[in-house]
Each structure stands twice: as C-alpha cells, then as structure tokens.
Input
Amino acid sequence: MPHSVEHQSELIDIIKSQAKSLKPLLTEMRRHLHMNPELSFQEYNTATWVEDYLENKLGLKTQRLANTGVVAIIEGKGQGSNKVVALRADMDALPITEINDGRPYRSKNEGVMHACGHDVHTTSLLGAATILNTLSHEFAGTVKLVFQPGEEKLPGGASLMIADGVLQNPKPDVMIGQHVMPQIPAGKTGFRAGLYMASTDEIYMTVHGKGGHGAMPHFNIDPVLIAAHIITGLQQVVSRNANPAVPSVLSFGKVIANGATNVIPPEVKLEGTFRTLNEAWRSEAHEKITRMAKGIAESMGGSIDIEIRRGYPFLHNNEELTLRCKNAASIYLGEDKVENLDIWMAAEDFAYYSQEVPSCFYRLGVRNEEKGIVHSVHHPAFDADENALEEGAGLFAWLALQELSE
Output
C-alpha cells in the first residue's frame, strides 16, 4: 500500500539518519574502491569484496553472474504486493592514469582509475542495501541488487548479465540505475523521461594506397589525402542525411598515418564513433558510411577496409517510472534539488536493461567548486564530493521503497 504523508515523513527521517550515520563507512568504502580499481571484466577482487560485505555484514546470499557480476536479494517482510525492484551499480574502472594531486586515496593500480564514478555507484548501492536491509519490515516484495561488470567496454557487462539471467528468478518489474554527474552540484540530482542517451557504434577503417617519396606524389596513391577526404565527406551523413529532429553524432578521434615529412605511407588507419537515438536510422547510417567511404577511396585510386562494431542501444527512461522517481526525489531532497536533464549523446550499457524492463537512469550531483571538484568524467583529475554519498545511498533506498509501495 502507498505510504501516508505522515509515514513518508517518518521513513525519510529514518533513511536520512541512517545515511548520515553510514557516511564514515561509505567514505571508507568509496576510497577503498578508488584506490583499488580494476578494468572492465577484470573486477575479480572488487566482486569478492562486494560479496564479503553483502554476505558477512548484511547476511545476504549472493550469486555470481558473467564471471565478475554480483547479485543479491532483499526480501520484504511487510504486507503488500510481490513487486520486484532492481537497483544497479557498475564496478569497472578505466585505463586512465590518475593525476597525482596529493589526494590520499589515489589509485594504487598505475594506469587504472575510477574516472567515471563507478566507485561511487557501488558504494551507493551497498549503502542503500544496508538501509533497506534494516527496513525490510517496511515493504513487501523484493529488492534485487545488481553489481555489474564491464560497463566501459563492448559488448557491455549489462548484455552479459542479461544473457546470464539477471532479469530472471525473479524478474524485475522495474530497474533503477544511478550515475554521477560532475556538472550537477553535490546534493542535487537530475532526471529525464523518455529518450535520454545515445546508441554507440565503433568505426574502424584502413585506407590502402601506394606509398612512396613525398616529392613524387604522381608515382603514389596517397592514403593520407584519401583519408582526409573520407573524414570530411562523411560529415554529410549527419549534416545532409540525418533527420534534423534525430540527434546524431559522427566523430573520428584517431588517425594513424605512419609516414614522415617526405614519406607517403602505404595505409592510414581511422577510428571513430557514430551515435544516435533512432534504431532504423542507425542501421541506415551504417550503410551510408560504408558506401560513401568505399566510393571516395575507390574514386581516388585506393581501397578501404571498414568494420563497424555495433555497441549499446539508445537508453530510454520509462516515462511513468521516471516521473514517479522524480517526484519521489523531490519529496526526499526538495524540489529545488531536482533538475531536468537534456538528451546526452554519451552512451551507457544500462540501455540494455531499458530495452527489456521499465527503467529509470538518473544522475547524482558530485560537483563542488570550492573543493576544486569540477572535472568531467573520464578526466585524469576526476573526483566526486564525498558528501554526495549520503544522497547516493539514501535516495537509492528511498526510490526502491517508493516503488515497492506502489
């Protein structure tokens, strides 16, 4: 049954009190994870550490999925429906060398860093699990805790968790995910219903020509020039082929032409990404990119090998669930602490869940300009205001309780 206004207020006070008392432990957890990051699909120590806390501190049974994924269940003891709410956190880190700015919790694994806040996500879910475990008498139904590997690397840990049965036994009625956002101040959060994040595909091209002396281009087939025309020409895929109402991005971030000032190389390698929010246009764009790149290369006397690796689908936030979560966040934090988000052309493998069950993926503010915590995710100086851990754990727990009371 839905909570009364008076009972809601009491529950919020209890959750906030518990989150506050957990703050030292949450900070310790987050710093442990930050100092001991592991790359995608290599989160063996992290998974064992998560299992140890869930089993030995909370008394929960755990299950391994996709090698380094961890799942646990909290059964409600109250009266009501048998609704199942899944809460998800990702655990992997990035191949980034953390800047040495004197922070005491700097990564101990050189070249590996929690630069996307997954240490915060895992900590928040452990905190929420701790709170919900003490409040199991307050709800009926089930909370499914999903600690997922490999969000940062194709094919995406979410797809492997789904293939391994994470959405079965029991099947979630809804799924909620949380992600840090350094553009939002700590203490605030953000929501967007409907289309939110883009699909992501990786493009790999090798342009073949005929290398030789730079002073005698008439004897060569210049793959550098061909590659330049391909990069420029392919911009038409978005500017002249995409429906302007459908957000699309085509970017090339890696060009390798291993020649010299006077050496035209025999080949050039290109790597890029294509992102959009429409599956039909996504497939059509792949065909246009391939056809146009081959045409340009052949028209200039060269040839090209193309591979487009299909990545995550677009992320859709279920409208009704997201509105409920946004309203619940407004009650918990205050309306002035809840922001509306714009479409974001970054990608997230939480999108796989959103294609299967009604889902809500929201943002947790971690910015603190006074502390110099202003860098974007994937930056070597990225950090999170640890005061946000209280909201991260408390709000996660509150959203689950509100959904279970629906």
Notes: The mean pLDDT is 96. The domain at 201-310 is CATH 3.30.70.360 (Alpha-Beta Plaits). The first strand starts at residue 62 and ends at 65.
